[in-house]
Specification:
13 helices; single chain; 403 residues; 13% strand
Length: 403
């Protein structure tokens, strides 16, 4: 590899790293508690305890739960229902009106019910879109920096920069380290050289994991606009026969239990998990938008929406997701590390801490270069690190694979 090619790769590594490092640190730090979000959520949950019932105890009717929710907030509309398959809970979304909710989803709130008794366990009167508590704060920082769609797209771009920094770091690793044993950390040399060796070692060891997490993270950031585009384009076609009809009134809605049963019969290999009510901008004006997922560890990450006529209870269509949204769904467990129980979560945290160390050592190298004489530069592809130390004076930008 010629010196000019090395310089170009070095420039790619330096600038993609410098641009993205601060945001990657935020993502890595906020990602640590999110790995344990289920455990932390349970620890911070101030809801009343679940009823102690037999393992085979039947679950309460969804229609009964909805009736209690509407009695609790007369005059409000039910926006959604979520049936948890991990915990015995049913979550009912409520809002003052459809107009207010569709213009500002933060006006909604959530009621948590015991799935066996139908008793309200928590009344989340705070708007659902408002950031309250530790986990929502971490999630918003990790997902969009409190900047909505613009923040989501920006962090997606930073994820792509991260992947490019990793690739360029791998390209540079061989020429820069060919005179040293793999994993060598020269403790007897200058402090900056030790930082460099540590940066190189951590980076090359974590390359595959950082690449997977960086790429899946960028894919997840793009999921929101891609899903919105698919939803709009698909909905226009499916809803043409109902155009011009009024949104069903509450008294005209069919039984939600019957709608769930109809969906279960239509897609028997799936588990019915939630419904969005007609009138929501996140669904159909005329249907229950019922979401289902698979029953195995893999298919449990794959979702299929089903439209149910809200007046008759008949299934209108089961809408297959396009391949690129399927890919996004499958990528999520690889990013969050939440599909293998506690051992995998602990491993994910250790790898995340290692990535933070790569970023920090890269920052130390970058800012420390100001104190090094600027007269030594990269001259040939066959240089000796021990003699010229070009990688110390031209230290790679923080991030990713070692220089």
């Amino acid at each position: 590899m010629s010196a000019s090619v090395l310089r170009r790769w070095f420039a790619v590594h330096k600038w993609t790293s410098l641009i993205s490092t601060l945001f990657l640190l935020v993502i890595c730090l906020t990602g640590l508690p999110l790995v344990f979000q289920d455990e932390i959520g349970d620890w911070l949950d101030d809801s009343a305890p679940y009823a102690q019932v037999a393992a085979d105890a039947p679950r309460v009717s969804l229609d009964r739960v909805l009736a209690v929710a509407r009695q609790h907030y007369p005059g409000q509309v039910a926006t959604s229902v979520f049936v948890d398959d991990d915990e015995p809970q049913i979550l009912v979304g409520m809002a003052p009106s459809w107009d207010r909710y569709n213009s500002d989803p933060a006006t909604g709130h959530v009621l948590k019910f015991d799935a066996h008794t139908g008793v309200i366990l928590r009344d989340d009167a705070a708007p659902a879109g408002r950031v309250v508590g530790f986990l929502p704060l971490m999630l918003h920082l990790h997902k969009d920096l409190f900047a909505g769609l613009a923040g989501t797209l920006f962090l997606g771009l930073m994820g792509l920069f991260f992947v490019l920094a990793i690739v360029s770091g791998v390209v540079l690793y061989g020429p820069f380290m060919k005179r040293l044993r793999f994993g060598a950390v020269r403790t007897g040399r200058a402090a900056r050289l030790r930082w460099l060796d540590l940066h190189n070692l951590l980076g090359i060891v974590l390359t595959v994991w950082m690449g997977v997490v960086g790429l899946t993270g960028a894919m997840n950031e793009l999921s929101q606009p891609l899903f919105a585009m698919w939803q709009v384009s698909t909905a226009r076609t499916l809803l043409l026969p109902w155009q011009g009809r009024p949104v069903p009134a509450v008294q005209d809605l069919t039984s939600l239990d019957a709608a769930f049963q109809a969906v279960q019969e239509t897609v028997p290999g799936m588990r019915v998990m939630s419904a969005v009510f007609p009138g929501s901008r996140f669904g159909s004006p005329y249907h229950y938008l019922v979401w289902t997922k698979g029953k195995t560890p893999l298919t449990g990450r794959l979702f299929t929406p089903v439209l149910v006529d809200a007046r008759t209870g008949g299934v209108t269509a089961a809408v297959p997701m396009p391949w690129y949204l399927r890919a996004l769904e499958i990528s999520r467990p690889l990013h969050f590390g939440d599909y293998g129980g506690m051992p995998l979560k602990i491993l994910w945290v250790c790898l995340d801490l290692g990535t933070i160390a790569v970023l920090v050592t890269g920052l130390v190298l970058w800012f420390g270069r100001r104190r090094v004489a600027a007269d030594t530069r990269l001259r040939t592809p066959g240089f000796d690190l021990d003699e010229t130390l070009p990688s110390v004076r031209e230290a790679p930008a923080p991030v990713a694979a070692p220089t």
